[in-house]
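Sanity check

After download, print the first record. It should look like this:
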Amino acid sequence: MADYYKVMGVSKTASQDEIDKAYRNLARKYHPDLNPDDPEGAKKKFQELQEAYDTLKDPEKRKLYNQLGAGYKQYGGGPGTGAGPFGSGSSYTWSSSGGAGIDINEILGQMFGSHGANPFGDSAGPFAGHGSRSQHRGHSAMPGQNVTSTISVPFKIAALGGTVPLTYQMPSGRRETLDVKIPPGIDSGKKIRLRGKGEESPMGGMAGDLILEVRVEPHQFFTREGKNLYIHIPITLKEAVLGGKVDIPTPVGTVTITIPTGSTTGTKLRIKEHGIAAVKKGEKKGDLFVVFDVKLPHEWCEKDVKLIDQLSPEPEPPERKSIQF
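Expected structure tokens:
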């Protein structure tokens, strides 16, 4: 005779909640209809599970079992010997209504639908009839498995929204292709849930969901911090000293800005609401920050050198005096 505690995978000190939880999980795992490759083996394990649970869920039976082991049955505490859904030779009873513990109909209702139909053939027995709790509670068939994947989104589409093609693989090995709608303003690490695009239900229920983790591709010129965008624009020495105009590409088109006179590397200008689109309704768009980088020529002509030499002497930059090892 099998050890009931080992059958249920719990310790001898397990609480009733732990025993109930183990029963729920194992009832789904060993149900013959969910094990088409080995229905007989699953049926045997299912029988052992039910017998173990019928004993351990009852405080008096459990007490006798702890004291006497399998021999406790001869004292009238063992599972019943009436016919069960596996035939007249079954040596256990089914908990179909009332009493302590878990109702097998409740679990089967979740697996096979709210009508409580007997998956083993006829309509008689504890799986059917008005006594099934699953009928009253309206349980639906078990949904299919959720599928997780990642989706790589171009920087521009993440900022403005759009669609991205995706091919992903189900746990069963089947591959699916679809176009995923990307909401504007989405950032790396966010998740998109597509209802019903996961694995199909083995019991005819709803398909699972497809859960996508977003990874935004880097941009060649722009970087992002929250909803704000940053771009570094190179300017010449003449533009830095005298100022000028420069065209800046933005998510909503090109804008022309003025380079302030006396700009240096690191000078920053803000273009309001030309950053990332608002994620939530009522929020403002982000801003675009333009950072200037003064670029000196690699080669100087003689005329330019003479002009530089004619500049007024400049004092030593004060930052140099504080530099030390």
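If your output differs, re-run the checksum step. Summary of this record's structure: Residues 39-56 form the longest helix (18 residues).
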